[in-house]
Write a structure and sequence with these properties.
Layout: E1 8-10, H1 44-50, E2 54-61, E3 65-71, E4 93-99, E5 103-111, E6 117-120, H2 122-125, E7 130-134, E8 140-149, E9 154-159, E10 180-185, E11 193-204, E12 216-219, E13 231-234, E14 239-247, E15 256-261, H3 262-275, E16 285-289, H4 290-299, E17 312-317, H5 322-326, E18 333-337, E19 340-341, H6 345-353, E20 360-367, E21 370-377, E22 398-402, H7 405-411, E23 417-422, H8 426-430, E24 437-441, E25 444-445, H9 449-460, E26 466-472, E27 478-484
């Protein structure tokens, strides 16, 4: 598994072939097939159930003007092939506006309710200006993003429609290794494609994303670019996973694909619908699989006996996290979470993902070869048991506009958001007055109201719900403010 992440590819298709299937075949089946052990499996029932509920998603990111840092050239592009004039690149840097090209991509999604809710991957829709959903019967709808969760790579979309086809959502925990599944999606814009394989492994952690929650279903059903967000379906025609990525050294399918289990999907979707963001608890530890730790110790010539070869080895405990409240220490091995056996980090992540702040959990761990168990009321990243609702820009209590060109020229700036009015809210409490120009928030450039809105939403659900705002007044005076978003 070493260096595995460099070969992991999010299965969203960023290039389109010049043709598509353009049509589909309806397959009818009366009931789920019952197959005796050792007999061939009929997958037509599963395909008939899944195909109408899997959609094609077209992503468009419009051309934009961006400000970038470029090296000054004191010779104005003078050709100096022999380097007689030294390195002109050391003449400093300047900001320059560039036009980014229009970008298009495609992916898949799964209709989970007849009133238009669709699940897909976050990486399929992230940064999109336009999203178009095409159903299996070629109907098209514009979609809006209801919410996203980068840690699980899931997103919830909504289209304005009713009586849409759906499929039943199954329990991915009941999947067995070796069980037949089909993957349904739109690889390379080949709409309504079905591939078959088996469950190759469960609770697979890949380290593909930083701070990601990973407990993938691994399958050898072919998953290619464009399959992202599509359905992994069992022989009963039930949704058991959302296809997310493939393992490849070439960018195309070479044996293994990975899907997000419905046990994770259900919690994320429910939280986004209820609260606008995922309510998450973290144990507040760093560590990894016990076996990996033991093997690393062996490579250093050390023999380590922890009393078990399975579980999660704790290498570090955050002072303010749930782990510290439990009394966990470096060297402990977590073996159970709420009575459920934990053999690796991915299983612990999946178990934690099912919890919300305020829930109780019993953690079983081994210390000095002795088994201990403690129960705790779980807290969120902000150290409370309160529901964290995604804040809106209205919490700031202001009105804004992009800085006019005349003011940009006067202040020698290239971007910013001017505060036109300050009402009761976070800006007033922080001392920000009318006329102030917001340029950077939490080290991100702010050029539009959408930029500020996105940064408010992101900060409001973070461990540190504060906006660190840098900007300038019309007088040329620069200022810096810390604007808390929490009460």
């Amino acid at each position: 598994m070493k260096n595995l992440s460099k070969y992991l590819v999010g299965a969203a298709c960023v290039t389109a072939l010049a043709f598509s299937t353009g049509a589909f075949i309806k397959v009818y089946a009366a009931e789920a097939p019952v197959v005796a052990p050792g007999q061939p499996v009929d997958l037509t029932y599963a395909a008939a159930k899944a195909l109408p509920a899997v959609v094609h998603i077209k992503y468009v990111q419009n051309s934009k003007t961006k400000t970038v840092e470029v090296q000054e050239d004191p010779f104005g592009g003078f050709f100096d092939p022999f380097g007689f004039f030294g390195n002109p690149g050391n003449g400093g840097s300047r900001r320059q506006q560039v036009q980014t090209p229009k970008r298009e991509a495609t992916g898949s999604g799964v209709i989970i309710s007849s009133d238009g809710y669709i699940v897909t991957n976050n990486h399929v829709v992230e940064g999109a200006d336009e999203l178009t959903v095409t159903l299996n019967d070629n109907r098209e709808f514009s979609a809006r993003i209801v919410g996203t969760d980068k840690q699980t790579d899931l997103a919830l979309l909504k289209v304005n429609a009713t009586n849409l086809p759906t499929m039943s959502i199954g329990d991915s925990d009941n999947l067995k290794v070796g069980e037949w599944v089909i993957a349904v999606g739109n690889p390379y814009n080949l709409n309504s494609t079905v591939t078959a394989g088996i469950v190759s492994a469960k609770s697979r952690g890949l380290g593909a994303t930083r701070n990601g929650i990973e407990s993938f279903i691994q399958t050898d059903a072919a998953i290619n670019q464009g399959n992202s967000g599509g359905a992994l379906v069992n022989t009963q025609g039930e949704l058991v996973g959302i296809n997310a990525m493939l393992y490849s050294q070439t960018g195309a399918y070479s044996g293994y694909g990975f899907a997000i289990p419905t046990t994770i999907m259900n919690k994320v979707v429910d939280d986004i619908k209820k609260y606008g963001s995922v309510q998450r608890v973290m144990l507040g530890i760093q560590g990894g699989d016990v076996l990996n730790f033991i093997n690393a110790q062996k490579e250093e010539g050390k023999n380590t006996d922890l009393g078990t070869n399975e579980g999660v080895y704790v290498s570090e405990v955050s002072e303010e996290g749930n782990g510290a409240a439990l009394g966990l220490m470096k060297g402990d091995v977590i073996t159970k979470f709420d009575g459920q056996k934990v053999t690796r980090m991915s299983e612990l992540q999946q178990a934690l993902n099912s919890k919300r702040p305020g829930d109780k959990a019993t953690v079983t761990y081994i210390r000095n070869k002795k088994e201990l168990a403690k129960t705790i009321t779980l807290k969120n990243a902000q150290g409370t048991t309160k529901v964290i609702e995604q804040a809106d820009i209205d919490v700031l209590g202001g009105q804004y506009r992009p800085v006019p060109d005349t003011l940009k020229k006067q202040l020698n700036i290239s971007y910013g958001l001017e505060v036109l009015k300050v009402n009761s809210g976070a800006l007033k409490s922080a001392g920000i007055n009318r006329g102030f120009i917001i340029q950077n928030v939490n080290d991100n450039m702010v050029k539009s109201i959408d930029d500020l809105q996105n940064l408010v939403r992101k900060a409001s659900t973070s461990k540190d719900p504060v906006l660190y705002i840098q900007g300038i007044y019309p007088t040329g005076k620069k200022a810096y403010f810390a604007v808390p978003l929490a009460d």
